[in-house]
Fold these 4 entries.
Entry 1:
Amino acid sequence: MKRLIFLLFAASGLSALQAQPDRWQQRVKYDMDVDMNVNTNRLTGRQKLEYWNNSPDTLHRVFYHLYWNAFQPGSMMDTRSRRQGTILNGQNPDWDVRVKDRIANLKPDEIGYQKVLSLKMNGQPVSYEVLETILEVKLNKPILPGSKVVFDMEFEAQVPLQVRRSGRDNPSTKVRYSMSQWYPKICEYDYDGWHPNPYIAREFYGVWGDFNVNITLDKKYIIGGTGYLQNANQIGYGYETPGAKVTRPAGDKLTWKFTAPNVHDFVWAADPEFIHKTQKVRDDLTLHLFYKPTTASAVEWEDILVQAVKALPYMEKNFGAYPWKQYSFIHGGDGGMEYPMATLLYGPGAWLHEWLHSWYQGMLATDESQYAWMDEGFTQYAESRVEGWLAGNNGFTSADIYRGYFSLVRSGREEPLTTHADHFNTNSAYSSAAYLKGAVFIEQLGYILGAQQRDKVLMNYYNLWRFKHPNAGDFIRVAEKTTGIELDWYKDYWVNSTKTIDYAIDSLWEEGGKTNIRIRRKGMIPMPIDFQLSFHDGTKEIHYVPLDLMYGAKPAENDIPRTVYPAWKWTSETYTISTKRRLMDIQAGEIDPSQRLADLDRRNNKIELRKP
């Protein structure tokens, strides 16, 4: 019933906007017809874009992305990449090894470009200026609040030689076309205004809407991508209804007709040698796999479908329902890159991470330029959870994520998570911050709130903010409302600064029939403290000290008796806890025995005492 409600919502256009509380959303509808020439690697296209201005603002101009213009010598992406090659991380240049200085060496028939041939708003020509990867459109008439306009565009493009994400003819994967960022895409306008981010390296942000895309190309090619194929029995190649006779029209080309409801982007890939496999998970969901056995064996590729069927119930239970009717795992040009209803994969190893982006990039879709850690970090965390579950464990299992964050801190290259994704000084610092520190944020939140409470937060976040582009403050407010614990301090320290956590056992002594243990805060980030005492007789005690800034305490997480103390004031460097047991009874004392606290030096977190 919930999925039926969602599908009605996704198809309803303006009515969908009225169903979203708390924040207005712009809305789009794309109708595109493109014709690809596989000999010249060029396409021509027509785009009709219906644009609803649901903001309270009058818009005097609009912006489009022209992503492929980045793949030209001297572009901002080229300049930035070559600059990164002059920065060393140890002995290694900081540049993305897939890009390096390759753009500078592209020949005229290898570069990428997107050229707008004509553009009209409501039938009237408008003036525009190409600013490399951004098209600035100056409107003859403003777009008023609550109104809809229609843009009609003719464009042409050349598919670049595979460099990054999109492109053609990767020599390793042998995939002919990876068609991401392939069409002129209107920029997002939200409560922060326009987001005309030049394409430098990363990331993406788009407007929710519906896509109708007709792709015409050589009949021998097989396409996988976003959306539902509407003329499957004319196409075949594994899309046809079981038992149906495929009747292809005459001619050398086929037109593939796709529709995609309530997505913010559209990707496709094409190759004449794609092997297409499907797996029906339930009546309203089919998984698709497109691959060439070049970077891995057929068995490795097809195991994706087996593992995906196993993982989906756990994913939906912990992170929310998957709402669309299909998902495609597609062998592509490089790396792994997520898109609505589909991912492009260099090899089969990254399938889980990219699919989990369907939740944090596909449905929640924070502005990845400003909040990359809320997409990559949350996805990295979810991947670790699911990997652990598939391996027979229950929970976040990747200690490597913590070690990677610690390595970032010790490198001296760390920048705050608030840094714009393109503006990190080094690629390595961006990756470690967005993926690793972002993942630690969620696991450590389980330490602060309790794991069960944290899981409730994640589900409430999904239920409230899917299809609404939330920001960091929105997530924190969900957590606070769910648990009754104040968390602005956690965001301020972990996200807005590069301060670190370090607690130590300072001293132990007996006094007045009790054993006292003094704990010292050495780092700049204050935290609540779980402290475990283990005794020689095999018993244990948990001592819990909440932080004053929380204005609350997490519930007990296990059956071990727990002593709760008055809150530790964040301005105090030390705090003393005590037990009625004798000092000679203690076998060990440990700060954070669960090791979820990102304590930079755990060597001073534990003390062991010999039995007298």
Entry 2:
Amino acid sequence: MSSESIQSTLQETRSFAPPASFVSQANISSVEQYQQMWQRGKDDPAGFWGDLAAELHWFRKWDTVLEGEMPNTKWFTGGKINASFNCLDRHLTTWRKNKAAIIWEGEPGDTRVLTYQDLHREVCKFANVLKRLGVRTGDRVTLYLPLIPELTIAMLACARIGATHSIIFGGFSADAVADRNNDAEAKVIVTADGGWRRGKEVLLKQAVDESLKKSPTVQKVVVVRRTGMQVHMMPDRDYWWNDLMSDVSADCDAVELDSEHPLFILYTSGSTGKPKGVVHTTGGYLLGAMMTSKWVFDLKEDDTYWCTADIGWITGHSYVAYGPLCNGSTVVMYEGAPNWPDEGRFWDIIEKYRVSVFYTAPTAIRAFIKWGDHWPAKYDLSSLRLLGSVGEPINPEAWMWYHRMIGAERCPIVDTWWQTETGAIMLSPLPGVTPTKPGSCTQPLPGVVCDIVDKEGNSLGPNEGGLLVLRQPWPSMLRTLYGDHERFVQTYFSTVPGCYFAGDGARKDEDGYVWIMGRVDDVLNVAGHRLSTMEVESALVAHEAVAEAAVVGFPHDIKGEGICCFVTLKSGDGSEALERDLIQHVRKQIGALATPDKIRFTPALPKTRSGKIMRRLLRDIAAGRESVGDTTTLEDLSVMAKLREQEE
């Protein structure tokens, strides 16, 4: 074993084959079919992706499927395409024109349904509004909205006229909005008076007003009236959405764009404090989002599909908007929190709309566990046929709860690995093919060539933890970081020669299944042993008292690095007896080398608004350091203050 490899201690032997009833109707239904597709994607990527791209509408077919090598690749050069046309217009010549595209529910309980025809009309009108405000092909438009239909309308309107959208999650601060406006040189910002979150109004327009003191490139602001709160409207700069929409034409031809035209910029946190503007282009991104939606979620015409992510994150871009709409699916959108007005809200929505495909995050699943089995037990979840997990590795015990309580042991679970930068799912079970193992994202999708390597790029053997890399370009990969191509090359292509690497450690088991071991910078180095924090967290969460855990390293005089565990309990407060019990539990599950040095009980963990635990901040607390870098994605700043009080 390489001295640089990460030691894996997690043992998981349970396996679940796809139910025969699911296999019989699946889009990909045999191991042979998957292997044939995967092999062709590896050996003949141009032929493989070129054939699939024919499922999209092209105004002009491409000259070349793939040009160049990583990091500088282009896909479908010479091809002319439009993402908005592919998500809307091509469905209008079929029966889908009267099919529900979006079923939306607001947190207060208000609802709207937009058919594909309705959505097309609204998108064309708002595209004309943008043109009237001076937006041209190639301009950047910031979208800072709650999870309401207007966000999807605005993004597709931008795509329709070739304006590059930059969506900022509606919980970011004014400073974060200004930073992103300035980096993208945004011309127009679309926002709302406010949004609803746990019964409170989120002050969006107020944050925009504050951001515009430092955003010189923004000329116009469009405001959706959502909550009805009083907001300041500056004459000749600020306009109400409804006023602008009242007298524009519903006819707007989709602009024929180069396949490599930038569809959107999406900012992801950087360790330096300067967010990275990930750029995705049109043809390749759309193909990746469409095909992975069809393969992984096994989409059928009669599915009611719900991905719980906000569109402000890449999951929402790819699997609330572009992927499902490109496939002509019915998409559920919900504006608010999963525990408003009570902890049954998600299950109520599934029962009400007969949701059949449900895609959410491990963080949410662990919260559901903490809230208790009686909540989902109150509702009829029999419409569900497929469950998904996204955002971070799911620990086996949370997987098993999801399988048992939500899926009634009959729904395959697709545990997906991918990133903002990859644009689309890279590793996942195919629900009609792959026997699943709790906690493993299993195998690469067709067209994805991954490997587990050491820093020199040498492939590692079974159960040797190393760096997860992608060895071959794929259509939905990011093309650059906006305005900083050098940082793009340095960040993603300099660690392992000739490979894409974005920070995750992993191992392959003896069956070739991939197990994500967390971020490489979250690896512990205890007395010369490199241990995965995720595996220690999984051991803790397997204890009956624990709802959630985050594990970080801190400087240790003897071992080099000690293990500090931040633990949230299902109920009650921590005690010295429980602390001793948890330490013994981890020793028993993993071994003495993983014995925790510190256990800190906390009612909540610092998380981004997409649900990821910010372990970097916990490392600072464990080491007694001040936190530096980008904290704009933190959902609740008070969590950090409470944790610091405990340390003092």
Entry 3:
Amino acid sequence: MKKLFFALAFSCLIWTSKASTTTTTDSKKEEIEVSINLIDVKDDQVLVTVKAPKIKTNDITFSLPKTVPGTYSTDNYGKYIADFKAIDSKGNLLTVTKTDDNTWVIKNAKALVKITYLVNDTFDIEKGRGFGKDDVFSPSGTNIDAGKNFMLNLHGFIGYFQDKKEIPYKVTITHPETLWGATSMIDKDGSKTVDLFEMPLYSELLENPIMYSKPDYTTFMVDGMDIQIAVYSPSGKFTAENITPEMKVMMTAQKTFLGKVNSTKKYTVILYLSSMTPTDAKGFGALEHPTATTVVMPEMMPKEELVKQMKDVVSHEFFHILTPLTVHSKEIQYFDYNDPKMSQHLWMYEGVTEYFANLFQINQGLIPETEFYTRMAGKIEHANTMNDTMPFTVMSANVLTEPYKDQYLNVYEKGALIGMCLDIIIREKSEGKRGILDLMHELSNEYGVSKPFNDEELFAKITSLTYPEVGEFFSKYVSGPTPIPYYDFLSKVGVTKITQKTPEGIFLKGQVPYIGVNQATKEIYVAPNKELNIFYSTLDLKGGDIIVSINDIPYSLDNIYDMITESMKWKENDPITLKIKRDGKEQILKGVVKFPYIDTEGMDATDASKANLRNTWLKG
């Protein structure tokens, strides 16, 4: 999973600114049949019918997940279920008791024939821009927009019977003829309004999201893998064709970097573009699956920025093919959806994945060396703002609860840096012959998709496959409380810390906006009662000024992303003309662009004697 907080900042200024085994019964294969009706949608709810297998106990428990793999959060998908009914063969209702947000106990279960319930979607009620306390992160959420779009993360629609997760599921989905389902599953029904999917286990079913919308997709092959890109753009601003060329280049490079790892033959990228209206998705980022990635982004983004963010998030999610989808612990292999036990090894599942998502780009020539250093220096800066003495293994094992939950985002920062340091140690000790990718290949061969490792044994296994120094690193810096001296490790490859002048954003300082938007008029205004930077003072811009246009381009809420993206292209002393409205009167302000600069931490290659080892680290 990867959450994007650049989008959080933009949505802040927009929405808060105000002016596997199979058993048999009676010689027939036991299975659970589920029907989802996407045609007769009423009150923004979808009807789900579950045909029960043969129940041999007086009571049976039916649940929807409390949490699902890859989210590291408690989401309680049962909260979105309404009108739950258990029915016998004569149509009579059986007694049902709801014992918590996600669980129903059915009495006289031997007579049970089917369950019906209505599903409400999560996009409609996101309050905290997708990151609020009670929000479901949008890429793991659900959408019901009758006749237009259905985002079926199936853990939000389909539940399981106690002790029945290990039998096959047969899912029938009826949908409007105008909508097509993007998924990596195979439709076994040839009709235009019915899709039939069969999966051997509940866990495998949940790993296959489906998005129904007007058909808009592309396909291409990469080293024997069939890649599908599907897009839902409510206004039609973007199509799959718009982003496919860049995605193909990136995913081809990823496959080349990964080498022999190939755990799937088909991979689907599902992109949902949010209209940013109050009832649409607001949590931007992605969630990985073994054969798919669901991505949610704001539709108002310019194409250039959308492609850039897609490359970052999809590259991260795609590398999850390696871990945890191939290399993982028993906590993940036997995941308990309603009483989850979390693994100690988020440093690997998310951290190493994030490290690879950056390393492969320098390795495959997609970014220059300086860009890679800038990214790693940024991660050091961000990691230093987090709790640097909290053992990473402890945070990982307890990530669903406070105070550890608040440190989760460090998996993308310190977690990636842990991967970097391990890579450098292995390169140094092997004289450049091996790196962390080689280690992950060895772990893939040792374990694999169906053979999990014991959580507490992984560090010893990795040490046995590498060097004692790796074990010492784990003990001191990953399971221990000692902050990592990153530049001690970087010095091994001739990279040192530097201080550099970095321009701050014109309209955003980190996550703090210098501008706001009037929701009623869609006008962009300079934030009042705030100390403005040199860009504003040079042009005599004042708090409350309404920005009408910049360099003759009109701007409003509808194209605010274009304005912010365009500002990233400006250079010092570029001429600039603004039309503003102050106290109800329009004015023209002319001048030059001036950036506010701050001292930031960076890194650079300064030791030529380490060039050979550095090249093997970056180029393999």
Entry 4:
Amino acid sequence: MSCAKLLASNPRTFGGILRSEIRKNGDTIKGLCLALKEAGAPVSVSQFGLWCRDERLPTKVRSHKALHAIEARYGLPHGYFIRKLSSTAGLVSCYAIKDVPHNRLELYAWHLPDNFLELSAQKQAEIKAWVNRNIFYNTTAFRKYQSQAVREAFGINYLQSKRRRLPLHGDVSTEAPVHLKEEVNALISFKTATLPPEGMDRLGRWSASTAHQKNVYLNLFFGALISSPDSRVAGFGARAEDVTIALLVFPAVWDWYLAWREKRRGFFTAWETGMMIFAKSLSLRQTGWLRQNGWLSSRLKPIAGLISETDVERAQNDWDAVCDVMQLHAQRRSRALASVEQVHRDPFEAIEPILNAKSPIQEYRKITKQIIAHLGRGGLEEYEQAEGIRAFLMLQFGMHLGLRQKNLRELLVCRSDCPTPEAVLAQKRRGELKWSSATEKWEVLVPAVAFKNASSPFFYRAKPYLCVIPDVDDLYAIIAAYMEKHRSVLIGDRDDPETFFVKGNLKKKGRPDFDRGSFYDAWRSAIVKFGIYNPYTNRGAIKGLLPHGPHCVRDVLATHVLKTTGSVELAGHAIQDTPQMVAQFYGRFLPSEKTALVIEAIKDAWKD
């Protein structure tokens, strides 16, 4: 590649920034290398070319000396290029650390001090250990379990795309037999269709999220069943061609699976209880899908050690009787499991420092203030600014609205004076951010049907959720800047998905709207960069904070209302849920905090 082509390339990467400065100062690569040699910081033309093409990065101490010499030559602040390495490509020092996974380079580099390579090996190891422990691995007890579990991934492919395929261990294929794919597709179609097929009945209709959950249930169930007993998964080892959804009517099959899950995790959780409730629903009289599809019994085959020939014959001769037995068994098992299930993770552990604060919302706001302070320092590329503004808005909207992740990421935005009619939003099952000319305020309208708990008493007679967003922390000005400039930077030349939050992609590939995983990653990335205090860089807002996703902001909001008012009902209103759900899952209201609130309420009674 010629020098002219090098200097004309995109300045988004570190190499691009370096080329841009060379061009801006009327220099050439060859001339600059000669000047560096004279300054006592020699770099070969070939090596410099690698930097400019982003094929290598200046990670060594002598390379940093050359960068400082370039800064002096061009009148740039000392450390300018080192900071650019960290803030753009996110690769400073990481190429010198051979064991950093490629997909973690940017966040890893964010938490390394600029002089990392100049530190002693002992200090480097200390910093690496802190980053691994607090940013990526084993941050909580549940994460320790999960990090081990993902190394033993299992599943069976009947609906997933190849890209999301879960690998099996041993000699078992991930591909489900054709008949099993057809059966699972038929179940999901039955439960998600607007109306059930003629001659059939059902109890309720699955939303897309419920269908996904049941899909995961079945994926793991059949994956465990066909995994080899000699693999790390230690499954049952059934032949894939012998597996059919009709096996779900046998108590022995479910009992094997429950025992397998208990052995794998060490205890039962609400997951197993939910699975048994699902098993019961399949065998219910009149509405159970398996009950209404007795022809599936013809696909049953004996499985040694699990299903005998007698079991198969009994099912084929009297399907209703077998379903009756399974319905009763599932009812008993779900009741027994509910009494022994344990919480597999502490939902408040990652945000403990925030919940301990007198004002959890004010404590969480420290993160958004860190984002604004970072953007205010300047020197950021256009794309970095757009990501920072989006991160601020995601967290700010989360604190104001208390919406679930799905409702937040699917929030549409109206950019005209004609907002989308509520009936259309209900049909799309999405909310919308709109500007009210009457009040000169931004409003969020979400139809009740778009919520996971649409039948909750919160939505009185299915009335929509409406929230007027206050103009605090310069929110309206930032929304305006995001809509006028930053949002289009993230979208690029891709089709606009009409959602308020959009997913950036420098490669300009893929859909610009968020899915569940990418929205979680974007939120977590904001917390990791701006929320977690790093003692080695002095960046980050809150000491002791751990990585977390968007759902935690609901805990923060509910807990703040509880601490401020003591009202479980108001806390439920803050997150569009019932007092029972707040008390059971969301609000952390300790006895000492309740007592302090009572003392505050009655203190005036002791005054004469």
